[in-house]
Design brief:
Elements lengths: L2 H12 L4 H8 L3 H10 L5 H11 L3 H12 L3 H14 L4
């Protein structure tokens, strides 16, 4: 899942009205969220953990998901996503 998709999930599930409100809650800047949206980049580990905490899911699942987004090798990506999914059965 792309970083902006995680941000949108937090925004929707927690009822935030704006990216600014999400950024403030996550302890990141609105400019960072804009970069996630424009570049399709990934969350760093700290932001991944914050997102997971806001969603009430296992932090490792978001960290592994974002690591998988950065990996080019399809076998490694699949392995990371498999582990992320095992940790986040109800995500």
């Amino acid at each position: 899942m792309k970083a902006f998709e995680w941000i949108d999930r937090v925004k929707n599930e927690r009822g935030f009205a704006s990216d600014y409100a999400v950024a403030k809650a996550l302890g990141i800047t609105q400019a960072t969220i804009s970069l996630y949206r424009k570049r399709g980049s990934t969350l760093d580990e700290r932001a991944s953990i914050s997102v997971a905490q806001m969603l009430g899911i296992a932090p490792a699942s978001v960290v592994l998901d974002q690591a998988a987004e950065r990996v080019k090798n399809p076998e490694i990506r699949a392995a990371l996503l498999d582990q992320a999914n095992r940790l986040c059965i109800l995500c």
